[in-house]
Amino acid sequence: MDKTVGIDRxxxxxxxxxxxxxTWWARRAPAPGGDTPVALFATCYVNYNDxxxxxxxxxxxxxxxxxxxxxxxxxxxxxxxxxxxxEGARQLARRNVATLLPAxxxxxxxxxxxxxxxxxxxxxxxELVPTPEAREVADAVMDLSDFVLQQARxxxxxxxxxxAVGKVAFHVACHNRVQNFxxxxxxxxxxxxxxxxxxxxxxxxxxxxx
Length: 210
Hints:
This protein is α/β, with parallel strands linked by helices. The protein has a domain at about 20-160: Glutathione S-transferase Yfyf (Class Pi), Chain A, domain 2 (Up-down Bundle), CATH 1.20.1050. The protein is built from 10 helices and 4 strands; from the N terminus they run αβααβααβααβααα. It has helices at about 20-25, 45-50, 50-65, 80, 85-105, 115-130, 130-140, 145-155, 175, 185-205; strands at about 35-40, 65-70, 110, 140-145. It has a 4-stranded parallel β-sheet, sandwiched between helices. The radius of gyration is 19 Å and the shape is globular.
């Protein structure tokens, strides 16, 4: 990389997976369709560095009654925006709008596990590509944890036992906070215990004199 693309040999980079998420998805046997159509925007990191995140997302979504698709996609463009390459980001946005639009018009929400990608798709695409199609795609994008929590609260996802997750420290990404939809990943981790508390509260509320 030092000689060919100018990345210093001492630069620490994340390891590449032996099999990308896109390759896994392409060879995966079709699963029975659920009643909630969604499309997964996997992100570059999940695709090349940690495909297990994408595989887990597909598994959870299917358990939540979703019919999962993974349309052709390229980088969301956030790295180019960070570097000031607006035209490069615009080209990527156009490509993603073209490939994601059929899924949106088929009634699918576009779900992404990456807050930076979700932010770019939702807020930057209508600015980079000021067309009705780009707005249509942007309006269909949701954070993956936000969507899964909605499915959980709608009782479309089997509830794990209280305490199954154990004690964890949760970091809320900056690009999650700026979208202002709440700490859905944290809430999803707390969901089994919260469900138990909600049940107790509901029983108390509907008791004598309610």
